[in-house]
Amino acid sequence: xxxxxxxxxxxxxxxxxxxxxxxxxxxxxxxxxxxDRNLAEIEQKLSVQILRRGNHLVAMGEKPAADExxxxxxxxxxxxxxxxxxxxxxxxxxxxxxxxxxxxASRDGSQMEMFRGxxxxxxxxxxxxxxxxxxxxxxxxxxxxxxxxFGIGPAGTGKxxxxxxxxxxxxIDGLVDKIILSRPAVEAGEKLGYLPGDMKDKVDPYMQxxxxxxxxxxxxxxxxxxxxxxVIEIAPLAFMRGRTLSHAFVVLDEAQNATTMQMKMFLxxxxxxxxxxxxxxxxxxxxxxxxxxxxxxxxxxLGGIDKIxxxxxxxxxxxxxxxxxxxxxxxxxxxxx
Length: 337
What we know:
By secondary structure, the protein is an alpha/beta fold. The protein is built from eleven helices and 13 strands. The protein has two domains: 15-96, Ribosomal Protein S8, Chain: A, domain 1, CATH 3.30.1370; 105-335, P-loop containing nucleotide triphosphate hydrolases (Rossmann fold, 3-Layer(aba) Sandwich), CATH 3.40.50.
């Protein structure tokens, strides 16, 4: 007797519909975004469909994804109720860091407000900056809690941007008297020759990423005045020799391009009442072949010292264009072969 063949078992998870009501129609319009672009972004990231039915939004898809979409929508709506805008960066943050609603807790009266739900706000003159990944949250917390902090990881993970934001916030709160930003003046694989102009003209091209970050946090006229008064300084690493940096927030960017002696020189500039942040990417060393990176030596020598924090980022923490993360992953995979 021939065996009866049973049809293949359907293992496709059942689809679900999860609905939520938002009473304020004006806020609901803002939540959806122009031409429903906010909803479209959530749909694309979570592989769900979101429909609007009156004052209700309905997420359709696999149950976990539909539940997550509703949770994200609730948190974004709460932002709007608090009078805060919702943009692509806010959606990205909530998708990366789903969790319970945070409880607010102040930090010694300063402008930086930490939340027991793991969220952090950094208030500057022009905008409020919020970390978008768990690694970024831990990094920002360490910047406030430690006098010396390292942020190490690939490009696009917000290491320098967040450090400058914290520096501006601490200056606004009166916790430091000045901001000093530095990086090694090392050419990235190209010989640029002699640049024209005075010393500022020669080093400014190397410092441009630091100017870009400051322009995001301070009005142009105020930034220009602070730089004129030397309240904010941007200078090559070589200019740090012989200085004692007291009551300052100091950032060394692109630290992988500092030599061992330069790194020791810089770290020993730390003065009373100062905070120092070292950021770098071990995969982008532009030093001459055979010359060890000061960042690698600092990791090896200082990793066991209390009150010095090390935060590490991966391609999952990239907050630039999504393709940047995939490019970094491709290079990392090739290097590991």
